[in-house]
Design a protein that fits this description.
Blueprint lengths: L23 E6 L2 E6 L10 H16 L5 E6 L9 H8 L4 H10 L2 H6 L5 E5 L3 E2 L1 H8 L2 E5 L3 E3 L13 H9 L1 H10 L3 E2 H7 L4 E3 L4 H12 L4 H14 L4 H15 L3 H11 L10
Parallel strand pairs: 2-3, 3-4, 4-6, 5-7, 6-9
Antiparallel strand pairs: 1-2, 7-8
Length: about 280
């Protein structure tokens, strides 16, 4: 019987979890949504079924007001070793329109980037190709010490196609991104931490508890404020400073009209923990 990360102690069997499909598992507990890639026999390589189900999971998360923060991780010793799409593009002869359709079908990084709540990825092993692109699309990245990272597509005559050429330079800078993509070099967690690719490097044994600590902390905050803070940062980075400052004021003003804001003030005055409702 396989086990996966972030299961409640009283139930470690994957069959007892609410499943979206065999390849993607979704569990919701204490305002945290856990999304688990579940193809360990293949290194959690993304196939078409996983991609479709992953998109469905992300849509469900956005529709569920009870989820305040999200964790993405994988079953087994590997986070995600890439995508079957890369093999299809290498081995097949197809026109540009069909290739674009396939890329859209497999775009799990695009799906996770559409989540309007904070997303933390627990990288429990190697993240290669589209696996790294998925991690890049998350907001905060924690990795176990033995993990490795690489965008290997140029070695196959391709380029990253699910956000790697855009998100990596925004995260680590143009020079570092060009070096990693053009050389297809694989790096370890020490270098990943040094260049800012990951937020934290922890032992394999401590990965779950470290991620649990940060998501449980985030889940105690105002869910509307969490969403708007993420929006302000994400949209602000795509704007000029002046436009970003204007966006920040607009979102702050919008927050003043919410029940959560009033509850936050009342809780502060009464010296108690706030009871946010996401309204």
């Amino acid at each position: 019987m396989r086990t996966i990360s972030f299961l409640p102690k009283q139930s470690q069997e994957t069959e007892k979890l609410p499943m979206v499909s065999d390849s993607v598992i979704l569990r919701i507990e204490e305002h945290i949504g856990y999304v688990v890639l579940n193809r360990p026999e293949s290194g959690n390589i993304v196939n078409q079924e996983m991609a479709y189900m992953f998109k469905d999971v992300c849509a469900k998360i956005n529709q569920n007001a009870e989820i305040y923060v999200v964790v993405v991780t994988g079953v087994g010793e590997t986070f995600c070793d890439g995508s079957e799409l890369e093999k299809l593009l290498i081995n097949g002869s197809m026109d540009a329109d069909y290739a674009k359709t396939l890329i859209d079908d497999f775009s799990i990084a695009t799906s996770v980037s559409s989540i309007d709540k904070p997303v933390i990825v627990a990288i429990n092993g190697n993240a290669m190709g589209q696996g790294l692109e998925l991690a890049l699309a998350c907001d905060i990245r924690y990795a176990s010490a033995g993990s490795h990272f690489g965008l290997l597509q140029v070695s196959q005559g391709l380029i990253p196609m699910n956000g790697g050429t855009q998100r990596l330079p925004r995260l680590v800078g143009k020079g570092q991104a060009l070096e990693l993509i053009l050389t297809a070099r694989i790096i370890d967690t020490r270098e990943a931490l040094r260049i800012g690719l990951i937020n934290k490097r922890v032992t394999k044994e401590m990965l779950n508890s470290e991620v649990e600590a940060v998501v449980k902390l985030i889940a105690t905050k105002g869910p509307v404020a969490l969403k708007l803070a993420k929006e302000a940062i994400s949209r602000g980075l795509e704007s000029s400073l002046e436009e970003g400052l204007g966006l920040e004021i607009d979102l702050y003003s919008l927050l003043q009209t919410t029940d959560d804001r009033r509850e936050g003030i009342q809780a502060f005055l009464e010296k108690r923990q706030p009871k946010f409702k996401g309204q």
